[in-house]
Amino acid sequence: MATPQTLFDTGIWYALALWPALHTAVSNSWGGPSSTDKRDWFAGAVSELFPALPPALGLATIAASVDLDDLGAVLLQVMQDEFECNVEDDSEVEVALTILRLRKGSEEGNDSEARTLEHRWRNRGAMKSDIKVIDNGPQEEVDEDEFEGFSDDEEMGGVDVDMSDAPALVETERPVKKEKPKPQVDDDGFTSVPVRRKR
């Protein structure tokens, strides 16, 4: 039978692996070629934030010294530092809550949270965040010799404009203008005015 510490450590790994933000970061190697190893290290680093659990169930336990805010901050910091990923959807709060529930269950000798996480992992199928980042290939380089002698301000008429966020232009069909009928002049030189129909 697994020790409380083993259940806790394994549960942390499942909780992190099921986190869509981390799953996406690892799938797309945002942490470099060793992204999978970083995820494993991440689980160990989170475990080390807590005091070690006793080796057998039923023994006195040490109260967790990590609160929800501290744990959430650590999760965000590691995502930023190791995977260059800013998580802005507050999903770290749910992951932190899961880990704290896991810790409480492990302290009480209750492995239901750990088993639930393992079950979710094994039956996860294709996670919603199976996103791949597509590299559009090398961008066309501009020959800087063409612009020799011009400063950026001169090129833009003295205005510094950043066009990197400008949307792409889309060609649309122009409406066809109705040609006005040519005025009709009768034999006496009078111009006839066409009668407009009421709409």
Automatic annotation (TrEMBL):
Residues 138-157 have a biased composition (Acidic residues). It holds the Pfam family WGG. Keywords: rRNA processing, Signal. Residues 137-199 are annotated as: Disordered. InterPro entries: Pre-rRNA_process_TSR2 (IPR019398). GO terms for biological process: rRNA processing. The keyword Signal applies. Coiled coil: none annotated. Residues 1-31 form the signal peptide. Residues 171-185 have a biased composition (Basic and acidic residues). Belongs to the TSR2 family. This is Pre-rRNA-processing protein TSR2.
